[in-house]
Write a structure and sequence with these properties.
Layout lengths: L2 E8 L8 E6 L2 E8 L4 H19 L6 H21 L7 E2 L1 E6 L3 E7 L3 E6 L2 E5 L5 H7 L36 E2 L5 E5 L1 H4 L4 H9 L4 H15 L8 E8 L1
Antiparallel strand pairs: 1-11, 2-3, 3-4, 3-5, 5-6, 6-9, 7-8, 7-10, 10-11
Helix pairs in contact: 1-2, 5-6
Length: 240
């Protein structure tokens, strides 16, 4: 299997970019920093870089227990950095990542940065936000698509760096990778302005991951023109 990848991060309408993303062999990771005063960008970069380093040290171990331990270590590393430096004591970050052994893919998230998996240009799996609005949608009080506009959308129930115990007990169901599949990791500044059906439509039109990103990014730019919109970041991957 070949995983063709294109990644892009943009500050959007903000003065600085608190999103961070990176890829290495068979791992893709993205984080959206929180905390203000430049703390967010430190948290997001540290989280992604620590995660990828742990993946490499762990010799790309795919079992759930090892992956959950990696997330916990990333969280504890951020908390330790908070304790060592008062200037970053409020930093927090979301995190979403995917890993594969080229046969099976596993993914996980903390917060509201998202993962989507596509087969035959249709979404067949996705992450669930750890947010108040997502919890309300799960109860059936609002529609899933209305999360984007809900007043509680930015109230997160889980983030990296908030508590020493993240209480992540299991991962999502693993996916058997097939040629022709695709997947997307993105921050809320991206998915807020690109609807799921539009992700599918734009994937259908695309020959490369960069094409796919470009189509979707145009939607973000059109919908945020003259707005102080959030940073937006996406990693687009096609399986060849």
């Amino acid at each position: 299997m070949v995983f063709e990848t294109f990644a892009h991060t943009d500050k959007g309408g903000r003065k600085n970019n608190e999103d961070f993303c990176a890829c290495d062999k068979n791992i893709w990771a993205l984080a959206d920093g929180l905390g203000g005063h430049d703390c967010g960008e430190i948290a997001s970069a540290n989280a992604v870089e620590t995660l990828i380093s742990l993946w490499q040290e762990n010799q790309a171990c795919m079992d759930d227990e090892s992956l959950i331990k990696m997330i916990d270590k990333v969280n504890l590393d951020i908390i330790q950095r908070q304790k060592e430096n008062d200037e970053v004591s409020q930093m927090r970050t979301t995190l979403v990542f995917a890993v594969t052994d080229e046969k099976t893919l596993k993914f996980a998230n903390v917060g509201d940065s998202r993962f989507y998996y596509f087969r035959n240009n249709k979404i067949i799996a996705q992450s669930e936000d750890h947010s108040v609005s997502a919890a309300i949608a799960k109860l059936g009080e609002i529609r899933y698509e209305d999360i984007r506009f809900n007043e509680d959308r930015n109230k997160l129930l889980k983030v990296i760096g908030n508590s020493e115990n993240l209480k992540i007990k299991e991962l999502y169901q693993p996916i058997s990778v097939q040629q022709g599949d695709a997947f997307l990791l993105c921050s809320d500044g991206f998915w807020e302005y690109v609807y799921e059906q539009e992700m599918e439509i734009d994937l259908t039109k695309s020959q490369t991951p960069e094409d796919w990103f470009s189509f979707m990014a145009k939607r973000v730019l059109l919908r945020t023109e003259n707005k102080e919109n959030d940073n937006f970041t996406a990693i687009c991957v096609m399986v060849e």
